[in-house]
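From the shared-data thread, chain only:
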Amino acid sequence: MKGLPLAVTMGDPVGVGPEIVLKAFVDSRQRADASCRLLHVGDPEVYARTARHLGLEVAFRVFERWSEDLGTNPACFDILATQARAEPGVFQFGKPHPGHAAAVVESIETACRLAQTGQVAAMVTPPIHKGSIHAAGFDFPGHTELLARLTGVDCPVMMLAGSGLRVVPATIHQSLASVPATLSREGLHQIIRLTLEALRVDFAIPEPRVVVAGLNPHAGEDGAFGEEELTLIGPVCRALAEEFPFLRGPLPADTLFHPKARAGYDAVIGMYHDQVLIPLKMLAFGNAINVTLNLPIVRTSVDHGTAHNIAGQGIADTGSYWAALTAAEEIALNRAAWGLRMEHGQ
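Structure, as tokens:
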């Protein structure tokens, strides 16, 4: 796995994705930790236009089809060109348009296929603009759902990580009022188990310590503030604790994120989006990443959006992108090492 490149998708052409990728490439010439091979999948003119606009001197190599030579020259920004191209007549930084959607989707599909066939070690995804993709007729909610469909996975799990904290929301982009009805024993059981297995394999933690947050204040306080801890979360945690002795919960969410508490676990599973994303972004804003668990491929992403309000201004921060590259390479190596151990019965 060490010799395989990472596939970097294009992201939204008029957002900050191409900008951070190009800036990181230029910066990599002075970074000692920039050792991984990269191939960029997308519309060559998007990268060229962005580089010209930002005044970046970049040597491009464009490939129309897969080549073993992709990513082998660290001095060159290698592009595996998509057949679909961003619509040049509506290209304006900060102004998303459905005319770019086909190239964006093809970039993701191509990188996923390369990962599935073992031609790349992992894929790293800058942000996409879901509104313009939906307006063009594509019917997936976002990256995670598209990759699940492409790889045949029923239950992808979203983990956010940064500054030593890993969090998994059991429910994601939905109203707070809908969360209690969405949670189920079967679903929560699956998310907890997949998180524990990913920590063991992808993050090389032999005995992962996971805490599960309650849904209600004070984790329900024995039913005084809600029944979900007694009827749903608690029974699931107890059933899994027989197999995973380092699993604890449900615990009050408001005491899980101070420094002493964080030292006692490897990941937190929360019941809804903001319960775990607010503390993560307080600690690691600008350097956090998104990792999709339970895929047969390795996929990491930046933990920020397209930031159209600053696109094309040259001020987008590359910290999350660097972290996503590092994590993708580490997870790919950990999976390979795990596979070798399984082959040898270890």
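The first helix runs from residue 17 to 27.
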